[in-house]
Amino acid sequence: MHQNKLKTKREQDEKVNGGKKGLVLGVANEHSIAWAISKRLAEEGAEIAFNYQNEKTASHVIPLFQSIDSPFYERMDLTDPNQVTEVLEKLKQQFNGELDFIVHAVAGGPHKGELSGKYMEVSLDGFVQSMVISVYSLTDIVKRTFKMMEGRNASILTLSYYGSEKVVKNYNVMGVAKAALESSVRYLAADLGEFSIRVNALSPGTVKTRAASGIGGFDSLYEYTSQHSPLKHNASLEEIANSSLFLLSNLSSGITGQTIYVDAGYSIIGNTHE
Ligand SMILES: NC(=O)c1ccc[n+]([C@@H]2O[C@H](COP(=O)([O-])OP(=O)(O)OC[C@H]3O[C@@H](n4cnc5c(N)ncnc54)[C@H](O)[C@@H]3O)[C@@H](O)[C@H]2O)c1
């Protein structure tokens, strides 16, 4: 019995993220990028705590969390500081003050109509909310949890998009927010390196999710990128999850502050006209 237990422990340690405890933010439904990443991490033996944004999403996500035996899931709107404080305190107790990874797969903020037409039409509130939800929320969560990750070779991953560095039609204020997010990743990586905590962004190509459906003309963008990427497809959820696993595990121990593309190569293409 004892020997069997030892063997199971060793098998777990050999798995890429076996025995690690993490927090995943941003599962809205089974199509969410955060859910694809979570399933892959769970296959490797990670123990995962989740948030969900509001009661409307609860009925979609709680069965998902239960399907991978999550020990912790709480409603937490990242724009509500009291809720964040309360939930993170419970999380600390659940995980005995220890945390090995965070996945931040959260975006939002633009008002209706601001993800189509001209960028310059963005409202002040749409601009500020995009920054608060899509950018500041990462910094806030990191500030509040880094003590749990100190000295654990921990890894933090957020999700960005190519619209941060090039103009992508209709992506508008979200492109500006993703540029700020990628910059935050670099500053956070510099702040946290001394605590053995890494911070990176993964930048997938286009994926059909709820957040993406709010971007004007998304279906034609999706078709275009699949036809024009070197690998002639859009990176699948499985491919995105595998790259996330790498960045969240010790296999990427020398990488921090980076934005890494998993987009079937689309972002390397300039003008390829005949
Ligand atoms: N879908 C794509 O094509 C694509 C491409 C590159 C990057 N991304 C990024 O991936 C991440 C995940 O998005 P997705 O495409 O899986 O869509 P999604 O809609 O499944 O996930 C977005 C999540 O953000 C959460 N969220 C928004 N406001 C919140 C708040 N105030 N408090 C707490 N949570 C909040 C939502 O509840 C949702 O779970 C986002 O950062 C997105 O920009 C998506």
Layout: helices, strands, pairs:
Blueprint: H1 2-14, E1 21-25, H2 33-43, E2 47-52, H3 55-67, E3 72-75, H4 81-94, E4 101-104, H5 124-149, E5 154-159, H6 172-192, E6 197-204, H7 218-228, H8 237-248, E7 259-262
Parallel strand pairs: 1-2, 1-4, 2-3, 4-5, 5-6, 6-7
Helix pairs in contact: 2-8, 4-5, 5-6
The structure holds nicotinamide-adenine-dinucleotide.
Protein described:
By secondary structure, this protein is an alpha/beta fold. It contains 8 helices and 7 strands. It has one domain (22-263): NAD(P)-binding Rossmann-like Domain (Rossmann fold, 3-Layer(aba) Sandwich). The protein has helices at residues 2-14, 33-43, 55-67, 81-94, 124-149, 172-192, 218-228, 237-248, and strands at 21-25, 47-52, 72-75, 101-104, 154-159, 197-204, 259-262. Strands 3-2-1-4-5-6-7 form a 7-stranded parallel sheet, sandwiched between helices. Helix 6 links the parallel strand 5 (154-159) and strand 6. The model has no long low-confidence stretch (mean pLDDT 94). It binds nicotinamide-adenine-dinucleotide. Nicotinamide-adenine-dinucleotide is lined by residues 26-28, 32-34, 53, 57, 77-79, 105-108, 133, 159, 161, 204, 206-207, 209-212. Nicotinamide-adenine-dinucleotide binds at residues 26-28, 32-34, 53, 57, 77-79, 105-108, 133, 159, 161, 204, 206-207, 209-212.
